[in-house]
Specification:
TIM Barrel, about 325 residues, 10 strands, two-stranded antiparallel sheet
């Protein structure tokens, strides 16, 4: 066998063995991954001894502290190696049989869905505290970099870039910068509406509205580890969003607001938060007219995270305003 081909087959086998370590549930998927390896026509693809298996598992466990992220990356690596081997030959014969390639493609699709779901579920646990939308139309003339840095310094845990004015190239440049800033503070970064910009900037996720790109289409454009959040007016839309596979629901407007063209929305009141929280087992972000005077009521109603705009971005000192709201959230959360 050609030395390059040999190296690729070895990488494929080791990649599948790594997936066997990382993806053990559901059991049927684990069995399919194992069968994918065992059905390869290479001597080194057979089962290891119990001692060898134990050694591999211990070695794999030491590779990283983030095994969910590693699983997502390992699937991409195996898929790439499969693609490489499918494009070359060993003499007159293909390296991988067509029937194996078809089965492997299905197994990798399922594994990618499972690994992505596991990773996103862990990432979504960081949706807590204060969530700030940074919009050039709502910063009082100050730059989005300034506003992002100020709110992160104040303790914001989530930043969303919403830009309806700039072209895609400018949006991407801005998104990359804000994502880097969020990484500095261990905060999440979301792109509003533009799935392509979210993908290209490696955002933690995408936020869409009821009339934006459908959830299924957005998921197809994003990587498996990127979150999707969706705006909802109340319980019915939140349940629809859950059924579509979003990772969090945003509910509002909770109170009347004039910010970002939402003056036409009917205020639901904090009672709607409790209704949604009791029915939809996803992180819940409350949005719309939330500030110091009503924050306590919103948190006690069950919101996991509060999306606040004007109380922060219209403030003369957004860093201090954020810090005060973060403290109030923590006190209300008990």
């Amino acid at each position: 066998m050609n030395p390059y081909t040999q190296a690729q087959t070895t990488a494929l086998i080791e990649g599948i063995r790594l997936l066997e370590t990382l993806i053990t549930a559901p059991l049927g998927l684990y069995s399919d991954i194992k069968m994918m390896r065992e059905s390869l026509a290479f001597p080194e693809s057979g089962d290891l001894t119990r001692e060898e298996t134990s050694e591999r598992r211990q070695a794999h466990a030491k590779l990283t502290d983030d095994h969910k992220a590693l699983a997502v990356g390992a699937i991409e690596s195996v898929r790439a190696t499969v693609g490489t081997l499918a494009a070359v030959r060993d003499g007159d014969a293909p390296i991988l049989e067509e029937s194996w390639l078809r089965r492997a493609g299905l197994v990798l699709d399922r594994a990618e869905q499972q690994a992505g779901f596991n990773f996103r579920a862990t990432l979504a646990e960081k949706l807590t505290g204060i969530y700030v939308i940074v919009d050039p139309e709502a910063t009082q003339g100050r730059s989005m970099e300034f506003m992002t840095r100020a709110t992160l310094e104040g303790g914001a845990k989530v930043i969303q870039l919403r830009d309806k004015l700039s072209d895609k190239g400018q949006q991407l440049e801005q998104a990359i910068l804000l994502k880097e800033m969020c990484d500095e503070y261990d905060a999440l970064f979301f792109m509003n509406d533009a799935a392509d910009v979210a993908r290209a900037s490696n955002a933690h996720g995408l936020h869409i509205g009821q009339t934006d790109l459908p959830t299924e289409s957005a998921r197809a454009l994003l990587t498996p580890d990127q979150l999707i959040g969706r705006s909802n007016s109340g319980l019915e839309q939140s349940q629809e969003s859950q059924a579509q596979g979003v990772d969090y629901v945003a509910v509002g407007a909770i109170y009347a607001t004039q910010t970002m063209g939402k003056s036409g929305r009917t205020a639901t009141g904090p009672e709607e938060i409790t209704r949604v929280k009791n029915a939809v087992p996803l992180p819940l972000i409350a949005i719309g007219g939330i500030g110091k005077s009503n924050l306590d009521d919103v948190v006690k109603a069950g919101a996991d995270c509060l999306c606040i705009v004007s109380a922060i971005t219209y403030s003369d000192d957004p860093q201090t305003a954020t810090r005060e709201l973060v403290k109030m959230f923590e006190d209300a959360s008990g």
